[in-house]
Amino acid sequence: MLDVILMLLVLFNLFSLGSTRISASIRVVAYQGAAIGVVPLFLPGKIPGGILVTIVLVTLLVKAGILPWFLRYAQKRVNVRREEKPFVGASASILSGVAALGTAFFISSRLPIPFAVASPFIVPVALSVSLTGFFIIISRAEALSQVIGYLILENGIYLFGIALLLEQPLLVELGMLLDVFVGIFVMGITVFHISREFEHTDTSRLSGLADWLPEVKRSE
Amino acid sequence: MNNLYPLFNVIIALAAAPLMFGVINRIKAFFAGRKGPPLLQLYFDIWKLLRKGAVYSRTTGIFFRLAPSAGLIAVLTALLFIPCGAYPAVLFFPGDMVLVVYLLGAQRFCMLLAALDTGSSFEGMGAGRDAHFSVFSEAVLFLCLAAMSAASGSVSLNGMLFTAGGRIWQVSPPVLVVVVFVLYIVLLAENYRVPFDDPNTHLELTMIHEVMALDHGGPDLAMLEYAAALKFWILASLPAGLLFPHGMKPDFFGNAALFLGLIALTAALTGALESCAARLRLVKVPQMLTAAAALSVVALIFLAK
Q1: With B196 labelled, which of A220, B49, B125, B128 sits at a CA distance of 20 to 30 A?
Q2: Burial class for A84, CB neighbours closer than 10 Å (0-12, 13-18, 19+)
Q3: Taking CB atoms and an 8 Å limit, are B287 and A90 in contact across chains?
């Protein structure tokens, strides 16, 4: 069962890399969050049942409920439908995702893990989810896509955390979840302000901002 | 007698392959609310065509006349390497999967040569598209076969689908489900079905397979159609062989019925898909096949670990 979830996570990765439609990406991130949320149920560990259920429910609520809902709300407010000009096209992104998966498997084969993990795939998949998140952040121009990339990156880190730190630091995980929650909120509000100020959310054009602008650029 | 069973299975394939296109068309007719052509329509068509004479244009050369029979021979040879459920293939040796893929490639090459030989610009366009898309679909097929051989530890189709039996599923079931899915996509692409090509369209600007068969007539067209049906059977045998319930230990007729049922199920699924989906834009086809290639590489990485 764990392997099914891990395979699904990789498929969601590839899908989010291949889609340029923001609403589809948000939905896939929600599915991915839900899939990662239920992973603790399938791990052999000594976590007491009550805490386990709390963890799963809180994760599901935040990752598959509140954050996607908020992203959808922000998307409606700034009114962007699709990634118009990504720096890397859909096919090349998917192939990069596959390359990232290969790299993740290679790294994890070189990574000595001092204790047994539930599945041999869990570490490479966690790494590949993080790498995919990084790739989406650097390859997309639309600010909302980058927030989605950040969320995928965090999914990978969370998976890594619950896979390896089974015993005590669940509190740390919850703290991290809160950080991400606040982070996404701040980003969403920032995106909204960018769009209100400039009537677009293309971050590649934001890098040209300065106090002083030549007259040619101002006409944009 | 037991040694002859694989040969009987080949005969079943030869006899039943055209039936599958009948199944597809009946399912499409059912979705559209029509009665549809008879299940045996392709047999009637082939019989009708075989009794006709062939007409050759003066611009065509030797390739145009040779290609249909050469293509049919290539596909017939490939069929000998395909195991049928609980019975082995007629011929097998380590690495025969490469030969099978290239025999199918040889059949395509014959089609392309014949299409170019007519000198018609439309047939040239069809041939160009076919060559373009086959670059992707052949690679995806090879990646799937590599993933299957990683799961079964064998480099022959017989070893993957017959000797390994159901054990291939013990390695990692979810990954193998992905392989079956990608094999189905390859089946659609290689057989020019929706969403890669629409077999119903007869607008020269959009079609691939139909346009390459336009100038053939009589026995040549019959051979092309029959080779297409056999190619569908061969490519459907790969996912059907993976999904075959080896645990049931069926007797000869049970085995044949089960295998035929699985392939007919593939055909029915194709018909249903064709009724619900539209053809992709031509520029989107390589993207779709790239995504399929990505899936098969993912499966390969998981299985090879």
Answers
A1: B49
A2: exposed
A3: yes
Mutate to test the interface with A, among B143, B172, B176 (most CBs of A within 10 A): B172
User: Phi-psi region for residue A213, left (φ > 0), alpha (ψ -120 to 50) or beta?
Assistant: beta
Q: What is the pLDDT of residues B180-234, one digit of tens each?
A: 999 999 999 999 998 998 888 777 677 788 888 888 989 999 999 999 999 999 9
How far apart (Å, rounded) are the C-alpha atoms in residues A12 and A1? 17
Structure token pair of residue B171: 């390695």
* Domains held by chain A: number: 1
| Residues 6 or more apart whose Cβ sits within 8 Å of residue A135 | A17, A93, A96, A97, A100, A149
| pLDDT tens figures, B241-290 | 999 988 877 788 888 999 999 999 999 999 999 999 888 888 889 999 99
CB < 8 Å to B294, chain A: 14, 94-95, 97-98
The candidate with the shortest Cα–Cα distance to A128, out of A30, A17, A25, A28, is: A17
Q: Where in the sequence is the domain holding A174, given as residue range(s)?
A: 2-218
What would you report as the CA-atom Rg of chain A, rounded to the nearest whole angstrom? Answer: 19
Query: Cα dihedral angle (B202, B208, B210, B211), rounded to 10 degrees?
Result: 80
| Distance, CA of A180 to CA of B133 (rounded, Å) | 43
- Quick one: DSSP state of residue B278? P
Q: Which residues pair with A202 in a beta bridge?
A: A142
pTM of the model: 0.89
Q: CA-to-CA distance for B131 and B208, rounded, in angstroms?
A: 10
CB neighbour burial string for B104-142, b if at least 16 within 10 angstroms, e if fewer: bebbbbbbbbbbbbbebebbbbbbebbeebbebbbbbbb
Residue A76: CB atoms within 10 Å:
10
